[in-house]
Amino acid sequence: MSFRLPLILSAVLAAWSSTAGAEAIKIGVTPGPHAQILEAVKPIAAKRGLDIQLLEFSDYVVPNAALDSGDIQANSFQNQPYLDNQKADRGYKIEAVGLTVNFPIGVYSKKHKAFADLPEGGKVSIPNDPTNGGRVLLLLRDKGVIKLKDGVGFKPTVLDITENPRKLKFIEVDAAQAPRALDDVDAAAINTNYATQAGLDPVKDPILREDPKGPYVNLIAVRTADKDKPWVKILVDSYHTPEVKEFVLTKFKGAVLPSW
To answer: Signal peptide: which range, if any (predicted)?
Structure first.
C-alpha cells in the first residue's frame, strides 16, 4: 500500500493538472441535434486538451451576433448560404472552419397525406429567413409545384415566383415557430432540429423532403481573427472522428447526415 498510494495520488494529480490546463471555449448551438452532437464531441476534445462549454440559443439570429461580439468562441447551427447572408447584412467578421452535418428540410402536414392533396389556394408556411425560406421554394420548384425567376440562386423569395398554378398561399413564419403553424396551415416547411423537438420524424413524416445533397451542409464558424488558433483545429478534428460519425448515424437514423 505504501507504494500504491503515491502512484494513485500521482495519477489523480496528473488528471487534475490536465483538466486545469485545458483551454476552455464556448460554442453556441441550437437545441436538438446540434447540441446533442457537440455533447458527443466534448469528451473527445477534452482528451485533446480542449474544454467545450455549450450555450443553447432558441433562434438562428443570436448565435452569430454572440460570436461576432466575442461572447462565444464558435457556433454550430448554420449552413454557408445562411452565413453568407448574415455577413452581407450585418458585416460580421466570421467564417467557416469545418463542415458538420446536413439536415434535409421537410414539408409536413396534419391535414394531408401527400403534397398533391393540398387544395387550390392552400396555405403553406415557410421560414421567414432568406436562406431557409429559399430552400423550400427551390424544393417546390424542383418538384414542379411552382416556377421561379431565372438566376435566383440559393435565396429566392415569394416575389420570385413566376408561376403558381395551384395558387398556394405562402405564409412566412419564424423557423422556430414552424411546428406550431401546422395546425393552422395545410402544410409547413420545418427545419430538422425544430421538427425533432416537436416529436416529428424527419425521415418518415414529411410529405416532401429536400435532396440531402447541395449547398446546405452545416458548419462550424469562428471569428476570422481566431481561425488559425490551435484550438480551432482540435475542435474540427474532434468533430471529424469515426466515433462522432457513428453517433450521428445511430442516433438520428437518417434524419441527420454526416458531411465528412
So the answer is: 1-22
